[in-house]
Amino acid sequence: MTAQRFPDATVDEREVARFAALAAEWWDPRGRMGMLHKLNPTRLTYIRDTACRHFDREPKARKCLDGLRVLDIGCGAGILCEPLARLGVAVLGADPAESNIAAARVHAQRSGLTIDYRATTAEALAEAGETFDLVLAMEVVEHVADLAAFVRCCAGMVRPGGLMVTATINRTLKSFALAIVGAEYVLRWLPRGTHRWDKFVTPNELEAALERNGLRTLDERGVVYNILLDGWQLSGDMDVNYMIAAERPA
């Protein structure tokens, strides 16, 4: 079967450069990526539990996702790839920034983990005919140049019976107040300029893009920050951060 050809249209070079400049700080939980480290357990739990339900696995098992092939697109320096690898999956971590991938490889080696890291794009992987049981696009779609093209590439790599999980930020007045003004300018959880409100994606927009590419939404969940616990948790409130899981019918 000839792989479908995709134009190289999803990568926003300015966004790549912004996150590449943070390569040395990705693994510092007290640095500028500290809030992502706090978010990681919540998104990992959601991915694990959703995948276990879908693939009929036991979530409490140490290698509960053993044998699955997973793509983490826009993986940065591998903050999510490493705990996924410990759950038994074969992880391909992809990021267009060479410096991020270099940092990811060094950290994985020090951690004694084997992870397939590649400095590449969703288009290149899709064009090469790569397929996966689970495709992850976590905190990525709000940074791409072309949402429709990006979702088309990612969805096309989901095998029949497989899953795609996406995490992003809703485009609401509340998200402008909390995710940009609050997180970047007041609390300084993130570097200023990390997000642009006009590039945020509503759940309806994201679900429609997934469904146009043959995926069926299974679950959607909000993610909120609990100031008392100083941590993130799942919620029914999708006004700001949220995650969507969709399947490709077998």
Mean pLDDT: 89
Strand content: 15-25%
Poorly predicted sequence stretches spanning 5 or more consecutive residues: 1-7
- Helix and strand pattern: HHEHEHEHEHEHHEEE
Choose one word for the global shape.
globular
**Strand segment tally:** 8
- C-alpha-based Rg, rounded: 17 Å
Sheet having the most strands: 8 strands, mixed
Distance between the termini: 19 Å
Structural class, from helix and strand content?
alpha/beta
Question: Roughly what percent helix?
Answer: 25-40%
Number of helices: 8
Write out the strand line-up for the largest beta sheet, numbering strands in chain order: 3-2-1-4-5-8-6-7
Word description of this protein:
- The chain has 250 residues and is of the alpha/beta class.
- The chain has an eight-stranded mixed beta sheet.
- The radius of gyration is 17 Å and the shape is globular.
- The two termini are 19 Å apart.
Summarize the model shown.
This protein has 250 residues and is an alpha/beta fold. It has eight helices and eight strands.
Task: Give short descriptive properties of this protein.
250 residues; 8-stranded mixed beta sheet; globular; disordered N terminus
Topology readout:
Blueprint: H1 13-20, H2 34-55, E1 69-73, H3 81-86, E2 90-94, H4 98-110, E3 116-118, H5 122-127, E4 132-138, H6 147-156, E5 158-169, H7 173-186, H8 203-212, E6 216-226, E7 231-235, E8 241-247
Parallel strand pairs: 1-2, 1-4, 2-3, 4-5
Antiparallel strand pairs: 5-8, 6-7, 6-8
